[in-house]
Design a protein that fits this description.
Elements: H1 2-34, H2 49-55, H3 62-65, E1 85-91, E2 97-102, E3 107-112, E4 116-117, E5 120-125, E6 129-133, E7 138-142
Length: 143
């Protein structure tokens, strides 16, 4: 039995080597086909760069001189200076709540719609901002 194995093993090695060699040749033959650059069908339809440049709109400065690019229309005045209030977080649910930090007093407020924070009253609580309103100013806190 040992002698029969000694005769079969060299034959199996030869078959294995030939099959690996055949696989390598097959992979090399399809490699050229897979990695060749593909040509487009419509090579003749090339647009000249000068035509492309004529289509680009020209910036006209006079159109923007007397225009306001960003609308600041909001009921009341928006306080432009740095605020002492920081919006820390908002909880949306049956009752919307906001956590606001007063930097001047180093104090946190947990407030709902209509609550007072100093001279300001909470007018609106949204997912990403809270609107505070006093007698003469409106303050918008954004996360």
């Amino acid at each position: 039995m040992r002698e029969s194995l000694c005769r079969v093993i060299p034959r199996l090695n030869l078959v294995l080597c030939l099959s690996v060699l055949g696989l390598v040749f097959y992979l090399l033959s399809i490699w050229k086909h897979l990695y060749q650059p593909r040509m487009q069908k419509f090579e003749t339809a090339v647009i000249e760069p000068s035509i492309k440049l004529r289509e680009i709109p020209v910036f006209k400065e006079e159109l923007f001189k007397n225009r306001r690019l960003f609308s600041t229309s909001f009921a009341g005045k928006v306080q432009e200076k740095e605020s002492v209030f920081i919006l820390l977080g908002v909880s949306m649910g049956t009752k919307n709540l906001a956590m606001i930090r007063n930097q001047a007093e180093n104090k946190n407020y947990y407030c709902a719609l209509g609550d007072n924070i100093g001279s300001f009253k909470v007018k609106q609580i949204l997912r990403d901002k809270v609107i505070l309103e006093s007698a003469d100013t409106t303050l918008e806190l954004i996360k």
